[in-house]
């Protein structure tokens, strides 16, 4: 049998993106060339109240088409969001971030994106980083602080109302005391008819 007349069939197994690669985006493992690309995210410090959303806007400088790249965003050691070769990869995401992240991919060709973390909780506090591991581009840490649940405006309103009530009660007590001091003293007399 001649090899030229044989039909060769090659089976290539399809690999799910979540099992294909394991990336490590810690600054100590990613090698970057001096003066190469930078991933700048803003704001670097975020303060939110529980239930609010957090938006991180990031851009590679100088501009670079990152549409086909892999992007990984983490909070400390937990994976917040993974984007691989034009698709989100929720299987790599930590359970507490599932269905809570949205990556705006509209400007990936220009090297920019934004990541939204919905419905912030106190447990979401920490330092967030994003990176393109295959290119060695890592962002600076973004620090998220989550408040107690009462907004500062609400606390101010409650304080003003409490102070107003306190001052009002003091004025009322002072007026009542002044009115009592001006009235003639009460003298008890016996009614002779009752005796």
TrEMBL record:
Gene3D superfamilies: Immunoglobulins (2.60.40.10)
Signal peptide span: 1-20
The UniProt record lists the keyword Signal: yes
Alphabetical keyword list: Disulfide bond, Glycoprotein, Immunoglobulin domain, Membrane, Signal, Transmembrane, Transmembrane helix
Localization terms from the record: Membrane
One protein family per Pfam: V-set
Keyword Disulfide bond (UniProt): yes
Domain Ig-like: 27-130
GO biological process, one term: regulation of leukocyte cell-cell adhesion
MF terms (GO), sorted A to Z: signaling receptor binding
Protein name: Myelin-oligodendrocyte glycoprotein
UniProt source species: Oryzias melastigma (Marine medaka)
């Amino acid at each position: 049998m001649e090899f030229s007349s044989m039909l060769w069939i090659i089976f290539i197994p399809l690999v799910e993106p979540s099992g294909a690669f394991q990336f490590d985006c810690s600054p100590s493992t990613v090698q970057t060339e001096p003066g190469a690309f930078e991933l700048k995210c803003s704001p670097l410090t975020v303060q939110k109240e529980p239930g609010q959303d957090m938006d991180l806007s990031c851009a590679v400088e100088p501009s670079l088409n990152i549409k086909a790249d892999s992007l990984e965003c983490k909070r400390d050691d937990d994976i917040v969001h993974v984007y691989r070769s034009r698709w989100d990869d929720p299987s790599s995401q930590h359970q507490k971030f599932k269905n809570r992240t949205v990556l705006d991919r509209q400007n990936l060709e220009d090297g920019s994106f934004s990541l939204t973390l919905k419905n912030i909780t106190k447990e979401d506090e920490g330092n967030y980083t994003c990176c393109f591991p295959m290119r060695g581009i890592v962002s600076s840490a973004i620090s998220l602080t989550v408040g107690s649940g009462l907004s500062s405006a609400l606390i101010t309103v409650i304080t003003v109302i409490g102070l107003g009530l306190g001052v009002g009660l003091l004025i009322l007590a002072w007026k009542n005391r002044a009115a009592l001091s001006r009235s003639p003293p009460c003298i008890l007399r016996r009614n002779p008819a009752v005796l």
